[in-house]
């Protein structure tokens, strides 16, 4: 038997590098200050004021959205570009808003690229769910990239016709709104996003959502949209470890079936099955690079203040939600 096969495979050095925090697979490089996996880490530690952050602190995140987290129990890689591919009526827009809100709840920052709606309407989606984002706007933790308003024929007329609430919300959010003067220019869209990320100091933290790739495609055309996605996937997700979540209704036969444009795809569907005279909604992870996920569908519903929540496979939507312990939590009236 070869010497390699006779070798005990138990690691001889189950130590953690004092700089990169990854396991040391061979003899460590040692100094008075610690043990390192490589000369590169030893020298970097000597030049740096502190070690790298723990990888788990920024390389994966739990979304806080119950149906999605139940399918990806160990978290989504933070360098992911994630596509929400949803049928009309599956509340994919609410899912995007909820993902941003959950990031804010974790004390992180969020950027919402608003293409399908003006910024005040995008902010109103938070309020429709009972989520007050005014403190996040004031505390410089939320930015809205406005790719909608400059598409209007008469922007001033739109501003004049807003009701009192929309006017108040727009004025309160004014410094948090990043205007994109030409959303048909993919470079301007990307640069506006980078300016927002820089202003919020978003690296290894936070989340970006895009409310509609379909609307962006109508502005940029298919190839330019793909170029934009590849650009921001590289410069935001891969370089900064900031995940991007983008919504589309293109479905399985549409964008981005060319292969490597995105890291993950979550399918959202309306089923023919009904409960309480309502067609049920379900979601599943079709693809997620770098993470384990359960290959199954989860039936879900949505409730203001609660967001998306999973339904038991056999639960009547009128009765309540399965708590996983043999009991049902009654749903509040809608």
Poorly predicted runs are 1-11, 315-334
Number of domains: 2
Within the CATH hierarchy, at the fold level, what is the topology of the largest domain? Rossmann fold
What general outline do the C-alpha atoms trace?
globular
Please give the CATH architecture of the largest domain.
3-Layer(aba) Sandwich
What is the end-to-end distance? 70 Å
Q: What is the CATH class designation of the largest domain?
A: Alpha Beta
Q: So, the CATH homologous superfamily of the largest domain? A: P-loop containing nucleotide triphosphate hydrolases
Mean pLDDT: 85
How many beta-strand elements? Answer: 16
Helix content: 25-40%
Query: Count of helical segments?
Result: 11
Report the major sheet.
Answer: 10 strands, mixed
Q: Which range does the strand content fall in?
A: 15-25%
Strand order of the largest sheet: 8-7-6-9-10-5-11-12-13-14
Helix-strand makeup class: alpha/beta
């Amino acid at each position: 038997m070869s010497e390699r096969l006779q070798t005990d495979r138990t690691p001889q050095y189950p130590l953690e590098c004092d700089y990169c925090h990854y396991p040391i697979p061979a003899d460590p490089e040692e100094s008075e200050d610690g043990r390192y996996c490589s000369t590169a880490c030893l020298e970097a530690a000597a030049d740096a004021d502190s070690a790298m952050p723990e990888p788990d602190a920024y390389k994966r995140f739990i979304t806080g959205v119950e149906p999605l987290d139940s399918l990806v129990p160990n978290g989504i890689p933070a360098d992911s570009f994630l596509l929400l591919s949803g049928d009309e009526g599956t509340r994919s827009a609410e899912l995007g808003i909820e993902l941003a809100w959950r990031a804010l709840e974790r004390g992180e920052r969020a950027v919402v690229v608003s293409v399908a709606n003006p910024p005040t309407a995008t902010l109103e989606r938070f309020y429709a769910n009972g989520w007050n984002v005014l403190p996040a706007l004031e505390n410089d933790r939320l930015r809205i990239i406005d790719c909608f308003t400059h598409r209007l024929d008469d922007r001033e007329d739109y501003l004049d016709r807003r009701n009192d609430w929309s006017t108040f919300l727009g004025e309160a959010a004014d410094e948090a709104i990043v205007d994109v003067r030409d959303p048909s220019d993919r470079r301007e869209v990307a640069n506006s996003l980078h300016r927002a990320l820089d202003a919020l100091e978003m690296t290894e933290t936070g989340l970006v959502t895009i409310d509609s790739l379909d609307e962006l495609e109508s502005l940029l055309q298919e190839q330019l949209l793909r170029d934009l996605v590849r650009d921001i996937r590289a410069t935001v997700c891969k370089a900064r470890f900031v995940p991007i979540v983008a919504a589309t209704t293109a479905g399985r036969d549409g964008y981005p079936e060319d292969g490597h444009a995105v890291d993950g795809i979550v399918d959202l569907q309306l089923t023919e099955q009904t409960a309480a005279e309502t067609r049920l909604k379900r979601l599943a992870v079709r693809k997620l690079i770098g993470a384990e996920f359960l290959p199954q569908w989860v039936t879900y519903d949505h409730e203001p203040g609660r967001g998306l929540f999973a339904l038991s496979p056999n639960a009547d939507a009128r009765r309540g939600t399965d708590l996983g312990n043999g009991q049902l939590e009654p749903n509040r009236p809608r």
